[in-house]
Each structure stands twice: as C-alpha cells, then as structure tokens.
Known about the structure:
By secondary structure, this protein is α/β, with parallel strands linked by helices. Helix content is 47%, strand content 8%. The chain contains six helices and eight strands, in the order H-H-H-H-H-H-E-E-E-E-E-E-E-E. The protein has helices spanning 3-23, 25-49, 54-118, 123-139, 141-158, 175-185; strands at 198-199, 209-211, 218-219, 229-231, 249-251, 269-274, 289-295, 315-316. A six-stranded parallel beta sheet has the order 2-4-5-6-7-8. Helix 2 (25-49) runs antiparallel to helix 3, helix 4 packs antiparallel against helix 5 and helix 5 (141-158) runs antiparallel to helix 6. The protein is elongated, with a radius of gyration of 37 Å.
Amino acid sequence: MGWKETKERCHGFRRAAGAWLGRNWMWVAGGATLVLSLCLLYPAYLDYLVIVEEKDRVEALRNLALAGAALIGGSWGFILAIWRTRSQQQAADAASYQADSTEQKRVSETFANAIELLGSESLAQRLGAIHTLGRLAHQNQELHVPIMELLTSFIREHAPWPLEEGQESPEKPRADVQETVKVLGRRNVAFDPEGFLLDLRNCDLQQIEMRNLNLAGADLTMSNFLCAQIASSDLSRVKGASIHFTKANIRSSKIDNSEMIDSWFDGAGISDVSFRNTSLQSAYFRDCKFHGTLDVRGANMASWEHLDPKNKEVFISDDKTIWPEGFTPPSKDAPAS
C-alpha cells in the first residue's frame, strides 16, 4: 500500500470516528465519568479496607458512598447540562434553517412572480415588477447579476436603436424604460463582480432623465441619448463607440476612464464635467455649449471635430492630455491631483 492510499485510509478513519463520536458522545462521556470516579474513590476504598473497628468501617463506608454519589451525580449533571445546551443549539439551528428555507422560498417566488409581471400588458404591473426586482437585487447578492442582466435586456428589447424602417421614436422614453434606468443607476454597486458591464448597447434612451445615477461600467455602444438630461451622475468606465449625446444636457457628472471614440456631442450643453483619462478620439463637438470647467487631464482628444478654440479656457488639462492637431492648449493648466 502506497503513502497516498494510507493517507486516504487515515482520513477516512478519522471522519468515521468523528461521526461515531458525534452520535455516541453521551455514552463516551458517561463511561469516562464512571472510570474517573472510580479512580478518585479507589484510594478512599483502600483506606476503608484497613479500618478494624466495625463502627468506623460503617462510617467510612457511608462517607465513601456519599462521596461517590456526589461525584457521579455532579458529573452526570454536568453532562446533562451540556446535553440540554446542545439540544437547544440544535433546535435553534433547525429553526434558523427552517427560517432560511422559508425566506429562500419567498425570495424565489417573488423573483418568479416579478419576471412574469415584467411581461404584463399593464404598465402598473410592469413598474411594480421593476421595483420589486430592484429591491431583490439590492438585498440579495446572488440575484444581483441575473436581475441586472434581465433589466438591461428589458431596455434593449423595448427601446432598440437604431429604429427599424417605418418605426418612429417616442417623444419621451417609456415610463417603464425610464424607471428601469433609475433602478440600474441605483443598484448596489458593491455587488458588481469585477469586470461586470451593464449591457446597454443599441438602446434608444433619448430624453432620458438621469439624476444622481450610477451607470459606471456600462457598455453604451451605439446608444442614443439625444436631448438626455444627465446631472450629478457617474458614467465612469463606460465602454463603447458612436454614442449619441447630441443636444444632451450633461452637468456635474463624471465620465472618467471611459471609451467614447467617434461619439457625438453636437449641440450638447456640458457643464462641470470630468473626462479624466477618457478616450474621445474623433468625437464631434459642433456647436457645443461649455460652461464651468471640463477636466480633461489624461484624456485623449486626438481628432476632435469642431472644437472651438475660444472654449479652451474651460479645460483643466495636464501634460498627459492629448489635444487635436493644431489646437492650442490652455495657457494655464491645473496641476494633476
């Protein structure tokens, strides 16, 4: 028999012995208590044997019996106390397991019901399902990613872009699409696994309202944010190209460490926005209205189209900023922080 087989047999024996001891621990403890009691009483028994007087022998025997009864009784009382404690713990564990099972069943039923209602023809039922799914995702890490994928799929299905021939884009986003974007933007980002992306490619989100939302780590490739209202929101680590922000109003927001190559910002109002370390090659900024400051430290703005030189003073840049060819950077750049 080799060392590996011997080691496996030893592990198997230890597991079997542990299981047997767990089932018979009271008998083992009782036997050990009896042996220990006999060992402690044996010297007193030897003293009893050497006593000559009958009266003294009776007294010694009585004391020996009382000591033995007290020792054994106390030991068994201790064992019974342990047994009661263990029984109570097992009962508590069983109750906790039952509660967990009941809660898991409730969550599963709520999840399944919300999925069913998400396809309802009733707007009220769809909105209720969206908020229910958002609440479940915020509370349950295991359901977070599946729910995020479900909600982004809902947007891609009901607000596709580009439109098919003959389709007309709604003047305002559907109420359920608007609420779904809010739920995504208020998700528990601590549950996002590393590298997780919200798949919002090819979505028609024109005139969408995004206030205090977090869509960091979203894929917005070929999505349409025409006339969107974006305020105090986080679009950091966005992936994508050819994103349409034409005539959007973007203010007090972060678009750091993102990829927005060949995207459109024509006619947009941009105020106090951070584009730090963002790739904006070949982006279009025709008739763009800049206000406040634009932080472009580390940004790649090579081949920017229609960047008006008179707006250069709104930029905060550093030596890592890549400017369009022929564009004179601001004379006073803020130090990198």
